């Protein structure tokens, strides 16, 4: 039998019963992010069902057990999964969702051998998007980001983190963050907001990074906090962007104000960003292509989650990728994300990331799904709400046109999602968005 979660009250009815599931991935049975061999334990159930009431999971497991658990309760609606693979809703823990413009012009520059930092130094990259974002209205930013969220949901995402960082003035950072809040209020996907005013040094502060850091600390952070527009603070700690000392100062100020901490760390050069993330108690460190064993061990000991972004290293044609296999063997919890942004990773597809994580990061399909559900949820402070199909958690589910986990990353380049359920409501059916 499936026990009711201790703090849950047995409902008077079942709003939705998803049954005849071929393979059910529950990710249940463990509190906290998964490490090492735990990442291969995805809680597989053959012949499963999920019962939902009031937008939350009532029971999930073998269909006979679920039906026994809800016996006597009226069932308002049933959904036949027709033998499909069913998983928790996918969680994308690192995106730059709200931005103006696009940067397809940089494709030719990359093909000619120009590096990411070279493009940035010439006023392109992030700074190009800053100009476009500053010029855009809130409504324009909202509509552009809404379309991307729709695509993310079609591909299975139900919870998404969104960073600012393309405004780089107080007014424009607040503009981005207000758009994120508006989207969270109006779109089925739940958004988690991160302030990233320290994404780059704006052109008007070139050569005066200390002054810009002061602006972030003394003006931006307090106002973002006062308006309640972000839960986390992130910094791009990298050569030519923000130094370890500058990053530490910004994170310390954010921590003092009550922000959760994240860090873009050791993406291109081994500056010690992973160690800084551990030192500051960050919930996650992102990228990590150049992180050393020392830095990864420090993250492990501090409980920092590694968010790997294989679509970014793929698109930048990096000589190497994040060492996810080493991270897992060392006991660092690993999450995966699109890093959706207009330059280095212009994709909304977590399914593409699955394939790249298998092929370039040497992760197994089970590890990939763990990294995109429960570990990704913990990387944005939502592990107690989403990421697994357990009683009391939000009823976020994806029904894939697949019979097993491996088929999804194996058969790449298409969308395998048939149905998405968000908080107990079907929002994608037959691979199409339903009316909101």
TrEMBL record:
Its EC number is 3.5.2.7. It comes from the Bacteria. N-formimidoyl-L-glutamate binds at residues 166, 341, 343. SUPFAM superfamilies: Composite domain of metallo-dependent hydrolases, Metallo-dependent hydrolases. Its main location: cytoplasm. One of its GO terms (biological process) is L-histidine catabolic process to glutamate and formamide. GO terms for molecular function: imidazolonepropionase activity; iron ion binding; zinc ion binding. Keywords: Cytoplasm, Histidine metabolism, Hydrolase, Iron, Metal-binding, Zinc. 4-imidazolone-5-propanoate binds at residues 103, 166, 199, 267, 344. Catalyzes the hydrolytic cleavage of the carbon-nitrogen bond in imidazolone-5-propanoate to yield N-formimidoyl-L-glutamate. It is the third step in the universal histidine degradation pathway. PANTHER family: IMIDAZOLONEPROPIONASE, IMIDAZOLONEPROPIONASE-RELATED. This is Imidazolonepropionase. It comes from Brevibacillus aydinogluensis.
């Amino acid at each position: 039998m499936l026990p009711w979660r201790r703090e849950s009250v047995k409902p008077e009815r079942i709003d939705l019963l998803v049954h005849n599931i071929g393979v059910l991935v529950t990710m249940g049975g463990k509190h906290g992010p998964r490490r090492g061999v735990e990442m291969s334990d995805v809680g597989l159930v053959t012949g499963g069902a999920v019962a939902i009431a009031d937008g939350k999971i009532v029971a999930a497991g073998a269909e006979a057990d679920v039906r026994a658990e809800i016996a006597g309760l009226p069932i308002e609606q049933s959904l036949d999964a027709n033998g499909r693979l069913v998983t928790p809703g996918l969680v994308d823990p690192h995106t730059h969702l709200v931005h103006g413009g696009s940067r397809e012009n940089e494709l030719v520059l990359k093909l000619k051998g120009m590096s990411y930092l070279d493009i940035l130094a010439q006023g392109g990259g992030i700074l190009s998007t800053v100009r476009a974002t500053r010029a855009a209205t809130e409504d324009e930013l909202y509509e552009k980001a809404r379309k991307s969220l729709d695509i993310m949901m079609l591909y299975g995402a139900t919870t998404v983190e969104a960073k600012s960082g393309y405004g780089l003035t107080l007014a424009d950072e607040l503009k981005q963050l207000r758009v994120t809040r508006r989207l969270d209020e109006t779109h089925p996907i739940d958004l988690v907001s991160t302030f990233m005013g320290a994404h780059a040094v704006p052109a008007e502060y070139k050569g005066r990074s200390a002054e810009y850091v002061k602006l972030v600390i003394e003006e931006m952070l307090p106002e973002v906090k006062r308006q309640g527009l972000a839960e986390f603070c992130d910094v791009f700690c990298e050569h030519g962007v923000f130094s370890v000392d500058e990053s530490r100062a910004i994170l310390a100020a954010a921590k003092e104000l009550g922000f959760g901490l994240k860090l873009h760390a050791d993406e291109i050069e081994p500056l010690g960003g992973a160690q800084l993330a551990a030192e500051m108690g960050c919930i996650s460190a992102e990228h990590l292509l150049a992180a050393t064993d020392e830095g990864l061990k420090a993250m492990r000991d501090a409980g920092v989650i590694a968010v790997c972004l294989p679509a970014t290293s793929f698109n930048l044609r990096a000589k190497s990728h994040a060492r996810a296999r080493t991270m897992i063997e060392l006991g660092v919890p690993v999450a995966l994300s699109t890093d959706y942004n207009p330059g280095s990773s212009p994709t909304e597809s977590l399914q593409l990331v699955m394939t790249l994580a298998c092929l370039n990061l040497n992760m197994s399909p089970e590890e990939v799904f763990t990294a995109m559900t429960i570990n990704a949820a913990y990387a944005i402070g939502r592990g107690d709400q989403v990421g697994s199909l357990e009683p009391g958690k939000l009823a976020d589910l994806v029904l894939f046109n697949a019979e097993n986990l491996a088929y999804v990353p194996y058969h790449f380049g298409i969308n395998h999602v048939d149905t998405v359920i968000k908080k107990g409501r079907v929002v994608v059916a037959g691979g199409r968005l339903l009316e909101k």
